[in-house]
Amino acid sequence: MYNLPCCRTGIAYISNVAVRENFRRKGIATKLIEKAESHARSWNCGAIALHCDMENRLATMFYKGQGYKCVIVPEGAKWPQPMTSTDMRFNFMMKLLKNSPPST
């Protein structure tokens, strides 16, 4: 499952990627991310971003393996913020997208 709102200012945002525990390690998350990136490309977005729980090392490693990098959000920037408890900390991760959609 994922939510991908409309691309604004050339950057799409992914939220709420989740795969049920007994279905993990089967390539489902990779397919979800590929689909989200394909949508972003079709909207002519140049980049795609997400927040990842800093404590979830496996998710962080997964996104890095997909080409996402941790970036520092400039002070005053208006990025979506995860709706969760105030004590959780997140990495803001972003990936630049190639111009053409991948062939399927």
Question: Mind explaining what this structure looks like?
Answer:
With 104 residues, the chain is of the alpha+beta class. The protein has one domain (11-96): Aminopeptidase (3-Layer(aba) Sandwich), CATH 3.40.630.30. The protein is built from two helices and four strands; from the N terminus they run E-H-E-H-E-E. It has a four-stranded mixed sheet. InterPro entries: Acyl_CoA_acyltransferase, GNAT_dom. Pfam families: Acetyltransf_1. GO terms for molecular function: N-acetyltransferase activity. One of its GO terms (cellular component) is chloroplast. This is N-acetyltransferase domain-containing protein.
Give structural attributes.
Aminopeptidase; single chain; Acyl_CoA_acyltransferase; N-acetyltransferase domain-containing protein; N-acetyltransferase activity; globular; GNAT_dom
